[in-house]
Write a structure and sequence with these properties.
This protein is of the alpha+beta class. The chain contains four helices and four strands; from the N terminus they run αββααββα. The protein has a four-stranded antiparallel beta sheet with strand order 1-2-3-4. Belongs to the peptidase A8 family.
Length: about 160
């Protein structure tokens, strides 16, 4: 008899994908023209439509187009690894299921953009005085929050009495 695995955490991935794609649709329609800031919290947060052909911080954005397929293959490979990890994780291990669900959702949200438009739509712009963070989206939030949770639970989560995390 097989033990229940953590694959049901993919419902969280589906929610991240849906919210990401809905927010990008909104940004594409409400934040024109590209690059014009729409203040949300003056001095801290703007909605600003931007596009990224690269990865985080526009890494490889100036490539001749090969980077699109590189990031598509990379996202698919990462998702396969994380799906196998979820399949091998006990269902009650939310400290692994939750972060992996967020990361898979974020990776697939940005993958959809790369396949559909050859670029990722970004619109969340955080800044303070001279400090300026690159524009990002909800998929990026899922990936980042998931990765931070995975590290934090790994470092500080401890093991429950039954030895299952």
């Amino acid at each position: 008899m097989t033990k229940p695995n953590a694959l049901p955490w993919l419902w969280l991935s589906a929610i991240v994908i849906a919210l990401d794609q809905l927010s990008k649709w909104w940004a594409l329609h409400a934040l024109q023209p590209m690059g014009v800031p729409h203040p949300v919290i003056p001095g801290f947060l703007n909605w600003t439509l931007a596009f990224n052909r690269g990865a985080a911080f526009s890494f490889l954005a100036d490539g001749s187009g090969w980077q699109r397929w590189f990031f598509v293959v990379l996202a698919l490979a990462i998702c396969v690894v994380l799906l196998v990890w979820l399949a091998r994780t006990p269902r009650r291990d939310w400290r692994t299921g939750l972060p992996l669900g967020l990361i898979v959702g974020g990776a697939l949200g940005n993958l959809i953009d790369r396949l559909h438009a050859s670029q990722v739509t970004d619109f969340i712009h955080v800044y303070f005085r001279q400090w300026d963070y690159p524009v990002f989206n909800l998929a990026d939030c899922g990936i980042t929050v998931g990765a931070v949770l995975l590290i934090a639970f790994g470092m500080f989560g401890g093991k429950p009495a039954d030895g299952v995390r």
